[in-house]
Amino acid sequence: MASVTFDKATRLYPGGEKPAVDQLELHIEDGEFLVLVGPSGCGKSTSLRMLAGLEDVNGGSIRIGDRDVTHLPPKDRDIAMVFQNYALYPHMTVADNMGFALKIAGVDKATIRKKVEEAADILDLRPYLDRKPKALSGGQRQRVAMGRAIVRQPQVFLMDEPLSNLDAKLRVSTRTQIASLQRRLGITTVYVTHDQVEAMTMGDRVAVLKDGLLQQVDTPRNMYDRPANLFVAGFIGSPAMNLVEVPITDGGVKFGESVVPVSRTALSAAADAGDRTVTVGVRPEHFDLGEEGGLAVTVNVVEELGADGYVYGTAEVGGVQRDLVVRVNGRQVPEKGSTLHVTPRSGETHVFSTSSGERLSD
Ligand code: ADP
């Protein structure tokens, strides 16, 4: 096992105007499960492929443990990759699929069988070892792809959207299985997904990318509690955080009636940069509801999810009508057209620079 270090790793595709991955600095601890997440085209796969050796690195370097692997061919990196399409060999049995890499490496038959059986036990695949992939369910195929990676006992697992071919329910159960399997095996894992829920539920830490640039790398908890900028604030959490521009006044920052805590120093820095507003963030689940006072939200649409409901409404904030989403108790959802009185919960507000997007509040 080993750590992984991206040291200003950069990939500029031939003919590209700007790098697909720009000076990525990221250290992944030995045994850690790190999720790379971001919208389509942000550079997740390129980062993973650079680590795998499938993509040239045009600047900076990549280390696995203390080995510089920047220019090593994939086969010398001691990694195993699980792809989105599992790419199982259709004419081979499950056992042969799982053992194929070892066979190519010249490992003897008895050892291959032992390792394949061990992996099959971990993955509940024992009864299927003699079947062909076409006689398996989607979830079982996915586990064979995992098994193929496990038998190699690599230093690092790389996974590129390995759950995207599964239906919603299977995706949820398989993500739990992969996360607990990774913890049991303790193999350093870099996992790519565009799905922030997957990122937040699986990763020890999550790295958010946008336009080839790393935005924040942190534990899921910190990412949710203290997003570093507007992009991360809007990307992590569902439904997304309400982000509302409000004026900077002598009294500080107000969201409706509520004073939003932010340091004087941060506010004067924003004002010095020429900003007249800041952007306040409140998650839908961080409003207190009352009979009166606070912000008066006109209810336009109510989404009922059983335990919770989400109110999509409008309210006047800082003199302008704004759209707001508010989570409510699923058994007490308000009527469409009614008015909901909400106050952002103390300690659950975020303030960002409107111009740079950087976080200003503590
Ligand atoms: P993601 O995995 O986050 O969806 P990618 O790493 O695949 O993003 O792509 C990052 C950027 O690099 C995108 O703008 C994409 O169009 C570009 N790109 C990806 N692969 C190639 C390639 N082989 N040649 C040129 N540009 C590419």
TrEMBL record:
The UniProt record lists the keyword ATP-binding: yes
Domain of life: Bacteria
One protein family per Pfam: OB_MalK
Domain annotation ABC transporter: ranges: 4-236
Segments for region (Disordered): 336-362
Regions of compositional bias (Polar residues) in chain numbering: 351-362
Gene3D superfamilies (alphabetical): 2.40.50.100, Nucleic acid-binding proteins, P-loop containing nucleotide triphosphate hydrolases
Keyword set, alphabetical order: ATP-binding, Nucleotide-binding, Transport
Annotated InterPro entries: AAA+_ATPase, ABC_transporter-like_ATP-bd, ABC_transporter-like_CS, ABC_transpr_MalK-like, ABC_transpr_MalK/UgpC-like, Mo/tungstate-bd_C_term_dom, NA-bd_OB-fold, OB_MalK-like
GO molecular function list: ATP binding
Entry keyword annotation includes ATP-binding: yes
Protein name, UniProt field: Sn-glycerol-3-phosphate ABC transporter ATP-binding protein UgpC
Protein source organism: Streptomyces bambusae
Taxonomic classification: Bacteria, Bacillati, Actinomycetota, Actinomycetes, Kitasatosporales
Gene for this chain: ugpC
